[in-house]
Write a structure and sequence with these properties.
Elements lengths: L1 E6 L8 E5 L7 E5 L7 E9 L9 E10 L4 E7 L4 E6 L4 E9 L7 E8 L3 E7 L4 H4 L4 E7 L5 E6 L1
Antiparallel strand pairs: 1-4, 2-3, 3-6, 4-5, 5-8, 6-7, 7-10, 8-9, 10-11, 11-12
Length: 157
């Protein structure tokens, strides 16, 4: 798994990034924003692949995701990057989702105004990761209760 996080400028902001289970197939990343920095917009890119197959990289970018000061967001991948999990313990927020398949420089799929409800866990899963078929793929957003883990709803983006 590879991660890139960028944000709008905030003087003296110290955000914390924690990666768990490094070297395993179950890595997660947690971003905790500086409590004194104010609300900011972030771009979070998470890439995954299975084994040594970098050419089959699956990339998710969450662009313009607004996070309040002192908020955390947790993300992780399953199944060689076929699905992205996001835990939003904070307030509701929206973002633009971009999906990249393999070594392409432009997103194969873009979905605007994706909403992360407060205190929920989300699984983002495209129906197909083959670059030639992705433009017609359905992207599912499964919403889970963060306390019970039960599926609340499934949305087609």
């Amino acid at each position: 798994m590879s991660v890139d996080i960028a944000s709008t400028t905030a003087a003296d902001a110290i955000d914390h990034v924690t990666i768990t289970d490094t070297g395993s197939g179950s890595q997660t990343i947690e971003l905790l924003t500086d409590a004194k920095a104010g609300a900011r917009k972030f771009a979070i890119t998470v890439a995954g692949w299975r084994g040594n197959y970098g050419s089959a990289t699956k990339v998710y970018t969450l662009n313009d995701i607004a996070l309040e000061a002192g908020t955390s967001l947790v993300a992780g991948m399953n199944d060689g990057g076929k699905e992205l999990w996001v835990h939003n313990p904070g307030n509701a927020t929206t973002f633009t989702l971009e999906l990249y398949a393999g070594a392409v420089s432009q997103p194969v799929v873009t979905k605007s105004n994706v909403t992360l409800e407060p205190k929920r866990i989300f699984r983002i899963t495209p129906s197909d990761w083959e670059a030639a078929k992705m433009s017609n793929a359905v992207v599912y957003l499964d919403v889970f209760d963060a306390t019970t883990g039960h599926l609340v709803k499934q949305v087609k983006l």
